[in-house]
Design goal:
- There is one protein chain.
- By secondary structure, the protein is mainly alpha-helical.
- It has five helices and no strands.
- Helix 2 packs across helix 4 and helix 4 packs across helix 5.
- The longest helix is centred in the first third of the chain and has 28 residues.
- It is elongated and about 50 Å long.
Length: 97
């Protein structure tokens, strides 16, 4: 099963796969952590009282923030080129034809 994950994520070794998962985890946690002060600065909770819309807008804010934090953390861990290839593949998959 680990070999399938290594193949799926195109990791070189098991430790490289662990490093990739750590980067994904840190980027996700940091983007959610950073979204709260951004929402407080723009006072979104005062503007929107309907909770499902608030969550939707929060997710819209988190997504680009996640991209930025992922690249920043990948750069710190020395995996920038891996994640650059990963995102090129990801965005080409959603490209309109």
């Amino acid at each position: 099963m680990l070999n399938k994950l290594i193949f799926l994520f195109k990791a070189n070794t098991f430790l490289h796969l662990v490093k990739i998962f750590i980067i994904f985890g840190l980027a996700g946690s940091l983007s959610v952590f950073l979204s709260d002060p951004i929402l407080k600065i723009i006072k979104l909770d005062e503007i929107i009282s309907f909770y499902p819309i608030y969550i939707l807008i929060r997710l819209i804010i988190i997504f680009p923030l996640y991209q930025l934090t992922l690249f920043a953390i990948a750069f710190i861990f020395g995996e920038y080129t891996y994640f650059k290839k990963f995102f090129q593949k990801f965005f080409n998959y959603f490209k309109f034809r």
